[in-house]
Amino acid sequence: MSRSVLIYGAGALGRGFVAPLLCRSGFDVSFVDVDAELIARLRRHGAYRVAVAGRDGYRCEDVPVAAAYRLGEEEGVVTDHDLVVSCAGARASLGVARRLSRARAVVTCEDERDAAGKLRTLSGNPCVYLGIADVVASTAPPGLLAWDPLTVVTDEGVLVTELGGGALPAAVRRLDGPGVDQAWACKVFLHDATRAIVAHLGAAAGAAYVHQAMAERAVEQVAMGALEELVVGVTATGKVGERFARAYAEAELVRLRNPRLYDPIARVVREPLAALTRDGGLVGAARLVVHAGFHPEHVLQGIRAALGPGQPRHAGPPLPALRRALGASEVLRIVAGLDHHDPMHRLVTGEE
Amino acid sequence: METPHLTAAIRAAHRAGTTLTGYGGWPDGAERAHTAVRDLVAGVDVLAERAVVETLVAAFPGSSLWSERGGYVAGGGSDVLWIVDPVGDTEGCVHGLPSSAVSVACVAGGRLHAGVVHDPFTREFFYAQRGLGAWRNEVPIAVARTPVLHEALLACAFSARATPGREREYEVFGKLNDASRGCLRTGSAAMNLAHVASGKLAATWGRKLDIWGVAAGLLLVEEAGGRVATDVPIETARTPTVSCLASNGLVHPPLAEALAQILFNTRAPWVPVEVRVHA
Predict the structure, then answer these.
(1) Tally of CB atoms within 10 A around B46
(2) How many angstroms from the chain centroid is the CA of residue A286?
(3) How far is CA A188 from the centre of its chain?
(4) How far apart are CA B265 and CA B255, in angstroms?
(5) Which string of b and e fits B76-100 if b means at least 16 CB within 10 Å?
(6) Taking all residues of chain A, what is their mean pLDDT, rounded to a whole number?
(7) B139 and chain A in contact, CB less than 8 A
(8) Inter-chain contact A273–B1, Cβ cutoff 8 Å?
(9) Is A323 within 8 Å of B138 when comparing Cβ atoms?
(10) Which of A22, A130, A176, B231 is within CB 3.0–4.6 Å of A27 for a Cys-Cys bond?
(11) Is pLDDT at B147 greater than 70 in this prediction?
């Protein structure tokens, strides 16, 4: 008897990674999304294509869609599914918490460490588990889109969850507390932060995709240096084993260079100042390295690129008017909350 | 690419904001009892305005300036007019509320060209340039998609002093409050407009508001995809007050109908207003 999953969020992560992963394990896949046009398309087509980017080319899979609902239409069917997965964004998932109160099992794959705890509290459902989707999922290159505009390109990716998770298949690894901490630290610092550094440097160099940025020798050198610093940083926390971190970093480099992923830089750099809040994103990564007793030279280069005055050629709407008008130092102080006396402020700007 | 006008407006707003927050917050509670708070706020207002004027005139020598304190100061040899409010919501400041708004608008070539609204306490810069769009701290902003009045959060600004026709304003305020998700009465028309532009509020309005408090915000709403109506065009205004309605466009018709008389036709005999919630 087949099992069924209801996925909140039919974007790149939900549609491109979680759905095919569970489909391979025999799940019938249904989606919920706020995008009426996307839902109509999924209903009309009844299936879509995922292109998994490997070393030698793409491995294409067709994913059948059992049902697609606009947000609100799914209220009566949540409990009919063996599993619910949330990939709609941390705030959006909290917005549907009440509907998940009687779900059999919920995995929340949001970019927030305590997403599962919050959802457990708000839904009153103890069967909510944190999922960590370690994957690059992005819009497909034009050739594949011509065949099917719903196509998503991903790498192989890994999905891990906290222990529990009910109906989850064996392809999803269940980790204990320390295992989750290790996976989370690697994703946030070795994957997210390094990718942001490459994207900001690449944007300044006029690259459209992450792999194009990595083709620039100078950007690649910074990425390698930043990964080295961050491996030291995450290892020093005591939450990540050094061998694990080094293996992860090596795989990350392969992923960053992969020319088939078409990971768009514009998506990474669209809110450059958000990456520079006091403890979040790149500033948090730099602090991690400093706490380990090292100078975060390469991470700082990424921060300076994010603060830079240049308009990314492919970055679309963001207008760096604040940075141009006020300068990096003031933007750090006003918007990022790093005051002049903060050692991190001095490290970034080089001011005494 | 932004023009030097927007760059200068951001710098000026930043300097005024730094002056405002440089006091480490306003006096409150017991401290207010033995501090000449009004004098302090007035002093800060002077310092903030000086900072704004210095910045703008240095960037655009010969430009004209219009503000509450300085009045209209004609420049020479430039078609640039700056309409500035260095400290919005002074009453809130006097009472220790950590909110204010610096508002800097630029009229160039006879058109409202650039505008900045800055809340130094939340560290937010809202800015727009005609034809380019509107942003909050470098992220593009857009008005809310709230389609109907009964789902809309509204805000208005009106004077704390009794003015002729006030009872009509209260009547419409009450009816719109009941017909929507609520209507806030805030101390800052500039921040109301910024919040409409960024989609937090669906609409805002005010009667006979200070022009320096709304000029920048009206451009924000327009550039964020909203709709604006004023009793006089900002560019050609010769009096320091303006009545305005700014919205996401979708809830504009019922609001315009309800507010037409108090905002735009104050001399006509008063006719009780009926608010059409589902229009």
Answers:
(1) 15
(2) 19
(3) 8
(4) 14
(5) eeeebbbbbbbbbbbebbbeebebb
(6) 89
(7) yes
(8) no
(9) yes
(10) A22
(11) yes
pLDDT digits (tens, 9 = 90+) for B21-31: 876 555 565 55
Q: What is the pLDDT of residues A238-262, one digit of tens each?
A: 999 999 999 999 999 999 999 999 8
Q: Is B132 on the interface with A (CB under 8 A)?
A: yes
Q: Which one of A160-174, A180-194, A312-326, B256-270 scores highest in mean pLDDT? A: A180-194
B7 neighbourhood in chain A, CB within 8 Å: 321, 324-325
Q: Give the ipTM.
A: 0.78
Question: Do residues B144 and B199 lie in contact, with contact meaning Cβ atoms separated by under 8 Å?
Answer: yes
pLDDT over threshold 70, residue B176? yes
Q: Within 10 A of A228 (CB to CB), how many other CB atoms are there? A: 15
Backbone angles phi, psi at A255, to 5 degrees: -65, -45
Q: Nearest-CA distance from B113 to chain A in Å? A: 15
Q: Cβ B6–A337 below 8 Å, yes or no?
A: no
Residue B7 and residue A274: Cβ atoms within 8 Å? no
Q: Taking CA B98 as the corner, what is the angle to CA B93 and CA B104, rounded to the nearest 5 degrees?
A: 70
Q: Read off the pLDDT of residues B108-146 as tens digits, 9 standing for 90 and up.
A: 988 999 999 999 988 899 999 999 999 998 889 999 999
- What tokens appear for A80 in the block? 């009919």
Give the three-state DSSP class for A9: coil
Chain A residue closest in CA terms to B5: A325
Say yes or no for a CB contact (<8 Å) between A318 and B11.
Answer: no
Paired tokens of A273: 């100042």
What are the distances in angstroms from CA A310 to CA A323, B129, B157?
A: 9, 18, 39
What is the token pair recorded at A73? 């239409």
pLDDT greater than 90 at residue A344: no
